[in-house]
Amino acid sequence: MEEHDLMKQAVQALMSGMPKALRDPHRPAWHLAPSVGLLNDPNGFIQHNGVYHLFYQWNPLGCDHRNKCWGHWQSTDLVNWQHQPVALVPGACYDSHGCYSGSAVVADGKITLVYTGNVKYAEGSRTAYQCLAQENAQGGYDKLGPVLPLPAGYSGHVRDPKVWRHQDAWYMVLGARDLQDRGKVLLLRSDDLRSWQLRGEIAGSQLNGIGDFGYMWECPDLFTLDGVEVLICCPQGLEAQAERYLNVYQAGYFTGKLDYQRATFDHQDFHELDAGFEFYAPQTTLAEDGRRLLVGWMGVPEQDEDYHPTRQYGWIHTMTCPRELSLQNGKLYQQPARELQQLRGTSQQWQGAADSAPCLPVDSAELLLTPQGRFSANVGDAIVLDWDGALLRLTRNNLRDGQPEHRYWRGDLAHLQILFDHSSVEIFINHGEAVMSARYFPGPQPLLQLGGDAHLALEHWSLAPCMLE
Ligand code: FRU
Questions:
Q1: 64 given a catalytic annotation
Q2: Is pTM, for the whole model, over 0.85?
């Protein structure tokens, strides 16, 4: 479709679709969601001159993975957001089948987007171009065209550039599937963002001693935290194990040491970033105050997307809340961005035996929980968290066949911080040692019912809606 035809149809989709989307009882109060249509990966997350910009993969015309544009929100506080002009619309010969994921940097004082132009051919093959677009005076983005075709030795699946500045050069990581169907992360270098040199594969399936590790790696992100390099990536094709790798595709990280000269990354084992049901394609940015912030997509490609009830209201998926990252004993910790405390209303505190705890409204709420002993927490019979002293288990009925499905975390449980927003829950374990993120679709005004013989200390807030204007 031509760019301007897609935009005409998007305007109509918004005009006719928004009243219905806003009536959906499962619409979040304070998480970012698409006005209409499908949202997937966060893109181009950056703070510039005090303003956060978050772009996102967006199909304005439907709840399927087509017509990928870059929507654009901005915020000064990570809580209240404003819609900006749609940044990228597919339709050029180098991005005809989608302006796929990418990142943002500031070059010559302007926000510059680096994204993947996805091109499909009639006979079924595809190619990908890494492309630039630059901020203009109207708050929109002008496409500058491709700067990198497919590198030799790879399939048409090379995408999701994440670019950063190191010393006197630009660096990019790209997700790739090679010609032997091995997922890889490529490192590239450039002096000017336009001419890129492939330096090598820094991680991947059958590299650095990790054996078979998936046929494609998507959405890499590489950054330094406390002097350690962290590589985030989303491998596809890992086999499910008893208590991990249970989603259709994974999102996780390696810590290690990147040698920029030799283009090698000496890394530790892979760890999943989230132990819940929905989490994928996260992206980080360095805030101006030095924090490393992360936003993820609270969805997973091809994971029962056809059965989400919000489709009847013409929209699907949300972002996670923004999270602050830190490294503690070599582990990546995630905590809700401190700005989210602005949403807290009046607080209610309670302690006693879990069995006699009050029922708590959790439409839009935050709960701090210090448990001693076994307990369970049931939200409107739509999702249940239980702790048996060794295993934390999250259970819901599968959207496709109604059968119970589980996700797990194992460790010493001391503290939980749980964020609820109509159809999502984010469970931060031990101040960020692990997180379980999930969508669930309860009846109206669900209550949280606690049970078990544990002694609990809890604090509860209802959370105010945030502004999205
Ligand atoms: C991850 C992903 C990316 C791609 C984008 C397309 O969810 O498949 O690899 O760029 O989505 O929307």
A1: no
A2: yes
